[in-house]
């Protein structure tokens, strides 16, 4: 693990969700990227993966409940980083969280509290990339897409110069600490059938991780110049302070082929 007092000429990344299926791939891609020389990984408990011990990685253990309540000691951990790029792959399921309210607490409130704390007010431009969901919609009647949609809108309102929203399909090859039986069988369907007829069906987590790192490196203007992504629909997203780009599953797959 890197010394937090170390300095470098490269950019600094802040990562949420490094131990998850997508976040672990994002972390690996950040480590491999010469663009980022320091990676601050914020976790709920110490991790013991090889990636977390890389010399570029500084791991911070955070009490997200206290962070949501505005605890100064937790907020300060994020402020001190002064990240150039914030990458968010933190999320959960209703079943894993134990109900609708704890799901929203983790899936949305933890994310927005951390992103707000990481924002340097009046400072340098900062970019944020978020792993959302294919059907994200703040007006949805369903819990999961509504939470993702509200999180997208919340991120777009925090003052980041660039807000990049990935909306992936089924996460193929996801490595879970606790295997999900239904996910396994649905994955067989998406990989063997649906992905053959639609580019919106699935994306390998390894590809998604690489794309998230490259997208936040490029920024909104860089993505636009390459014809990657699209403008968001809905006033709440389009009216954000920074440039907001939405990258759907098909666009991410195309992007992944160039990496």
UniProtKB/TrEMBL annotation:
Membrane topology summary: Peripheral membrane protein
Residue ranges occupied by any NAD-dependent epimerase/dehydratase domain in the UniProt entry: 14-192
InterPro entries hit by this protein: Epimerase_deHydtase, NAD(P)-bd_dom_sf
UniProt cross-references to SUPFAM superfamilies, sorted A to Z: NAD(P)-binding Rossmann-fold domains
Keywords associated with the record: Membrane, Mitochondrion
Keyword presence, Thylakoid: no
Pfam families found in the cross-reference section: Epimerase
Membrane-spanning ranges: none
Localization of this protein: Mitochondrion outer membrane
Gene Ontology cellular component annotations, sorted alphabetically: mitochondrial outer membrane
Highest taxon listed in the record's lineage: Eukaryota
Keyword Mitochondrion listed: yes
GO biological process: import into nucleus
Sequence similarity: Belongs to the FMP52 family.
Entry protein name: NAD-dependent epimerase/dehydratase domain-containing protein
